[in-house]
Amino acid sequence: MSPRRARRLDPFDRPDRRGATRPVTSVPGVDRRESASDGDWVVRNVGGSGPDKTYRCPGCEQDIRSGVPHIVSWPDWPGGEDERRHWHTACWRNRLNRGPGRSRY
Ligand SMILES: [Zn+2]
Q1: 30 Cα–ligand 1 center, Å
Q2: For residue 59, how far is its CA from the centre of ligand 1 (angstroms)?
Q3: Ligand 1 centre from 87 Cα, in Å?
Q4: Residue 15 pLDDT > 90
Q5: How many angstroms separate the alpha carbon of residue 9 from the centre of ligand 1?
Q6: pTM of the entire predicted model
Q7: Percent of the chain at pLDDT exceeding 70
Q8: What CATH number does residue 63 fall under?
Q9: 96 Cα–ligand 1 center, Å
Q10: Nearby residues for ligand 1 (ion, Cβ within 5 Å)
Q11: Is residue 79 part of a domain?
């Protein structure tokens, strides 16, 4: 009995089910994925333009003033966008050097 035939008989593999549970994906060409020792992340560069809003960088706990290019990152898993954090670009790169015991975000 071939695996192909067995697969076709699988009631959970109907063609109309395909694509119904697509995970949340990010926009190609804008976001990039990074794998690091603290996990997989989606990283987006944020230009200087945008909403006039000040963010708090979790790396240095200083403000990121509006107009300053920085990055946004979140864990690369479904729903991870709820954990978005704004970082200074340098702080993001240096986060792994700050030692254990700090927040991942
Ligand atoms: Zn910072």
Answers
A1: 22
A2: 5
A3: 6
A4: no
A5: 55
A6: 0.63
A7: 60
A8: 3.30.1740
A9: 13
A10: 57, 59-60, 88, 91
A11: yes
Ligand 1 center from residue 45 Cα (angstroms) = 14
Is there a domain that residue 97 lies in?
yes
Rounded Cα–Cα distance for residues 91 and 43 (Å): 13
Question: What average pLDDT does range 4-24 have in this prediction?
Answer: 54
| Chain segment 44-91, per-residue pLDDT in tens | 998 866 667 899 999 999 999 988 999 999 999 999 999 999 999 999
Domains identified in the chain, total number = 1
Which of 40, 42, 97, 99 lies closest to 71 in space, CA to CA?
42
If one compares 100 and 64, the residue with the highest pLDDT of the two is 64
Q: What is the DSSP string of 30-78?
A: TEEEEEETTEEEEEEEE-S-S-S--EE-TTT--EE-TT--EEEEEESST
In a domain, 105, yes or no: yes
Domain ranges, residue 62: 30-105
